[in-house]
Structures
1.
Amino acid sequence: MNPITIKKLSLSCALAAFAVLAFGSAAAGARLTTAFVRGLEAALLFGGLSWSLVSWLLPKRLDPVTPPPSRKGGDVDETA
């Protein structure tokens, strides 16, 4: 998993947390500014948590898999 995928995953988690908390607070009767601030706090908390957790669990560098060298004509009988 490359760093761009990790950032996309964290951003989607942050946006989901913001949407749930901000709209849930507004629907429960909180003022819009309070709901917005709660949503920002949730986005920072859960986005940062998911980013740090995924970055910590995945290895820093993955070695690319190289295929074994092909032997062109290696199986052909050359006695003819």
2.
Amino acid sequence: MCTLNKPEPCRIRKTHIVVFLLLLIVSGCVSPASKIKEPMPYITDQQSTFSIFRDDIAGPRSASMGEELFWVFNYRYLGSVLIKNYSCPTSEKYPQGFVWSGTHRIGSDLVYTCEKYYLGQIGITLDNSGIPIGKRPLIQVSGNKKGRSWKIQGEGKFFIPAIAYDGSWGVRYGGTLDGVYVFEICKSTESAVIEILQSLKVSEEAFLDGIIIRGVLLKGLAPDKNGVIRFDLHGEQSPPPNDLPKFKVDETGKLHFT
């Protein structure tokens, strides 16, 4: 005669609960994130503006009458951030050029959210240096699925400062007139039109001794010969911030992150 064992509903129920809790933990659905009273906008390591030379100015150079001696691109910060170093695992991509603020905490670490990204319900957990924390730093801090988290791929700081091209200026050689050297300070507009801002007239002696133009030392190496001068340039423009990734600059001044 076969005897059937009676079911043990309590044991089955407890087992199901344990498995369910484990799934919650593994999937990142238990969130210790707590909302803070005053949101703290993310501030990048930045100054208000910076400038760079279009070309490498190291070593002796030459220019003929009408040619440029050097050109400088200016940039300014917009107060917002870009996300270029990390992948986005969600269907909605990271918004670019917006402000992200610390709105929640996990322990001592801030979770930064943006209203343009899932209405601020999903944020990124960063340490004090702006690096994502843990294996699943992207976390949902509010809403019906609060506690979900995602892995992301990348390295370095999560945010980089959003910057805008702010015009350019340069110096070109205007030739000599009765032993006087003429240098033209020019600027470029958005329409690519070159406008002469000022003409500088200096003696040959001053040219050979060196003149400073907007912080750049222009030092002649030899007098004008058949409309051509040889010279050295020395100067440092305000450098880009440390948290800006590597980039290249095209002839129009646009930055291309590499």
